[in-house]
Amino acid sequence: MVTEIDMFIPDNINEEPQVISLGNICLLDGSCTSSANFSGCGWTWMDSSGNIQLVGTRNFLRRESALHLEVEALRWAMENMLQHSTCQSFGTDCKELIAMVKDPQAWPSFATELERIETLQICFPDLNITHVPRGRNQTADFLAKTDRSFHRELHFIGCSIPVWLPRPPQV
């Protein structure tokens, strides 16, 4: 099965690519530091009007690299969209992640992780992974950064950011 993956690549590499519409999309992000014991993942599912319908936030023991964490964030977001929505579109600020999904054979050190993504892709006949500028992915970024600061396991899925998390500036 061939999967469509859209990449918005600017003519001038210094320009930030733009996504025209962020409707019915799951925005995701991962965050890690070399000194933290945990890495964080966050995602937000927005309906066709751009309203947040569901958020997910979780932390993991620190991953091998930031890119490993981005793959893990995509896997977790895909699994949740299968359970909670009909969303087929995902947005990330990680261009390398998009390249990995488009051509997994070019990333042999990620073979195991990408095999899990390929298996999930079977359930997404209209899969679309889009680059979203970091400034348009602030809620998922906030969730991921907040998760890594917890000193115990954290796993939350709900309709809004839980009250026990600090509020992001734009919410």
Describe the structure.
The protein is α/β, with parallel strands linked by helices and 171 residues long. It has 4 helices and 6 strands. Strands 5-4-1-2-3-6 form a 6-stranded mixed beta sheet. β2 and β3 form a beta hairpin. α1 packs parallel to α3. The longest helix has 19 residues.
Provide key terms for this protein.
disordered N terminus; single chain; 4 helices; globular; RNA-DNA hybrid ribonuclease activity; RNase H type-1 domain-containing protein; RNaseH_sf; nucleic acid binding; 171 residues; alpha/beta; 29% helix; RNaseH_domain
Please give a quick description of this structure:
GO terms for molecular function: nucleic acid binding; RNA-DNA hybrid ribonuclease activity. Pfam families: RVT_3 (PF13456). With about 170 residues, the chain is an alpha/beta fold.
**Order of adjacent strands in the largest pleated sheet:** 5-4-1-2-3-6
The main pleated sheet reads as: 6 strands, mixed
Count the E strands: 6
N/C terminus separation: 39 Å
Count of alpha and pi helical runs: 4
Series of H and E elements: EEEHEHHEHE
Bin the strand percentage.
Answer: 15-25%
- The portion of residues assigned to helices is 25-40%
Structural class: alpha/beta
Weakly predicted, low-confidence segments: 1-16
Radius of gyration (Å): 15 Å
Shape descriptor: globular
The averaged pLDDT comes out at 82
